[in-house]
Design brief:
Layout: E1 20-21, E2 36-40, E3 48-53, E4 66-72, H1 84-87, H2 96-102, E5 106-110, E6 115-116, E7 122-123, H3 131-144, E8 150-158, H4 160-171, E9 178-182, H5 190-198, E10 202-206, H6 216-220, H7 224-228, E11 233-236, E12 248-249, H8 263-267, H9 285-294
Parallel strand pairs: 1-12, 4-5, 4-8, 8-9, 9-10, 10-11
Antiparallel strand pairs: 2-3, 3-5, 6-7
Length: 295
């Protein structure tokens, strides 16, 4: 334990041989220069800023189709500027290693129009953004930046972005092929999951069992059997969220968020720094799971 760091409220529950890791082991910002920045204004709306990565400017041929991976950040992350590329879980997908596994992929990171009101509260996050506006942004990107050449439409969301991932899929089910909500407690009902199956939507559902925001026992555990029964789903619910150094993740900024920030190890492809998988069912990580669906 680090004596200079506050102990999280769940510290007494971890195994005796475990240790707490207070920060991800990767460098933030290393790949920001691979992203471009632009904006788009949906109908009757203020403009939305977005970051994007274009594989054809990094050696991939221009005359083929590619998947689009859209990353939806958590609440307050849009206020962090370029750092939101990382916080949304999208930065490392611009790495040569990830791109090679995927065969090239466009990356889109739209920013919610967040701001702080006079009381200092965050307003304008995804929960206050209509699905239609976000749909228009993604659709605009596919038409304008990809020239319509989108082979698969993938949506990855973290925290409130995970809530929006399900919300978008519920409203525009046929528009998406793969969903990866990370840290969402609002699981669609059985009827909606049936529609996912009918539309051949694949689901990677990830949440920690000690998530500080979404109560795993109240919101998730009774839905796991139904999620596992889907045509194509992968369920990742680790007892403890770990960083690349195999330590149990703790992020305390006045409110302990370590177990809620599963996006950090997901960002690292669910691989430890020594190259071993965090889940033996994923020997090639999350990118390997996605790549298998792209074939």
């Amino acid at each position: 334990m680090n004596e200079n760091k506050p102990l999280p409220p769940w510290a007494h529950l971890i195994p005796k041989d475990a240790f707490i890791s207070y920060a991800p082991t990767y460098k933030v910002g290393e790949y920001f220069n691979r992203f471009k920045k632009d904006s788009f204004s949906p109908t009757d709306s203020e403009p939305f800023t977005f970051y994007y990565y274009d594989p054809t400017t990094h050696g991939y041929p221009k005359d083929k189709t590619y998947p689009l991976i859209t990353f939806l950040h958590g609440t307050s992350n849009a206020l962090e500027g370029d750092v939101c590329i990382n916080y949304a879980g999208g930065e490392f997908y611009a790495k040569d290693e990830y791109q090679k596994i995927l065969g090239g992929a466009y990356l889109l990171i739209p920013l919610a129009n967040e701001y702080r009101n006079e009381e200092g509260r965050i307003k304008g996050d995804w929960r206050e953004t209509s699905e239609k506006k976000l749909y228009d942004i993604i659709n605009y990107f596919i038409k304008s930046k990809m020239e319509g050449r989108c082979s698969k439409n993938i949506l990855i969301g973290n925290s409130s972005g995970a809530w929006m991932t399900f919300k978008m899929a519920n409203t525009y089910t046929s528009f998406f092929d793969i969903l990866i909500p990370v840290g969402a407690g609002e699981i669609p009902d059985d009827k909606m999951l049936d529609i996912y199956d009918e539309k051949n939507v694949s689901l990677f559902y990830a949440i920690g069992q000690h998530d500080e925001i979404n109560d795993f026992n109240k919101l998730v555990i009774h839905r796991l059997a139904r999620l596992k029964s889907m045509k194509n789903s992968f369920i990742y619910t680790p007892e403890w969220v770990q960083n690349g150094d195999k330590g149990i993740a703790s992020i305390n900024f006045g409110y302990e968020m370590g177990q809620h920030c599963l996006v950090n190890p997901m960002h690292c492809n669910l691989m430890f720094d020594d190259g071993t998988p965090m889940d033996p069912r994923l020997p090639n990580g999350v990118t390997g799971w996605i790549a298998g669906l792209l074939k």
